[in-house]
Design a protein that fits this description.
By secondary structure, the protein is an alpha/beta fold. About 60% of the residues lie in helices and about 15% in strands. The protein starts with a strand and ends with a helix.
Length: about 210
């Protein structure tokens, strides 16, 4: 069974860039490496919010309908879309020594908690969904938690031309990452340095971990 390396961190922390950097280094050592991303989709919610903004629909009505749509998409993600993506990753581990994945179950659970707060979703409902995804957390051999100060993130969002992220969401991510730091196999890496410096640190971390035979 191949080793599963998960990258987590806020938008702009460099997850995709560092995954590609690491994959290139490992492939240069003739290792077969697979890359993927496991993240819930909320397209219906996004479309509905866009239409409501355009049509200027009453806020009270929007909140009620949004809550229903988000709850539905949470259900579809948890019991259909995410399991399909997660099982695909497990299948790839049968053939690849190293599998690199963005977000995975940890990132999805953080999204769920954020959506619970944002749309006032019932806590009991969220707990049922989180419990279903929780067993997948133990699948990871190593988790790379990328962190960066907000000013650096804002600069990167501007350079990328992307919408600014919700700072409450980013703070939630960092709180949960800090709680997971005590777990075996979790490594926190500052992404505020240059791409090459961060990439070298991650590569050295992975190399040490591989040599340890864990």
């Amino acid at each position: 069974m191949g080793r599963l390396v998960i990258f987590v961190g806020p938008v702009g922390s460099g997850k995709t860039t560092q995954m590609e950097f690491l994959a290139k280094r490992l492939r240069s050592e003739n290792l077969r490496v697979s890359m993927g991303c496991v993240k819930p989709f909320f397209k219906l919610t996004q479309i509905f919010e866009f239409l409501c903004n355009k049509l200027k629909i009453e806020a009270t009505t929007v909140k009620y309908v949004l809550k229903i749509i988000v709850s539905l998409e949470l259900f579809l993600n948890t019991f259909i879309l995410l399991p399909l993506m997660l099982f695909k990753i497990e299948f790839e581990r049968l053939f690849c020594p190293i599998v690199l994945v963005e977000e995975h179950a940890l990132g999805s659970i953080i999204d769920y908690i954020h959506l619970k707060r944002l749309y006032n979703i019932d806590s009991r409902y969220i707990m049922v969904l989180v419990k279903f995804l929780s067993p997948f957390l133990s699948k990871a051999d190593i988790i790379i938690s990328l962190t960066s100060d907000v000013s650096t993130l804002k600069y990167r969002w501007k350079i990328r031309g992307s919408q600014p992220e919700n700072l409450t969401y980013i703070n939630l991510q960092y709180k949960i990452f800090q709680l997971s730091n005590h777990m075996n196999g979790v490594f926190q890496v500052s992404a505020s340095k240059s791409i090459d410096e961060v990439g070298q640190q991650i590569y050295d971390t992975i190399s040490t971990w591989r040599q340890s035979g864990k």
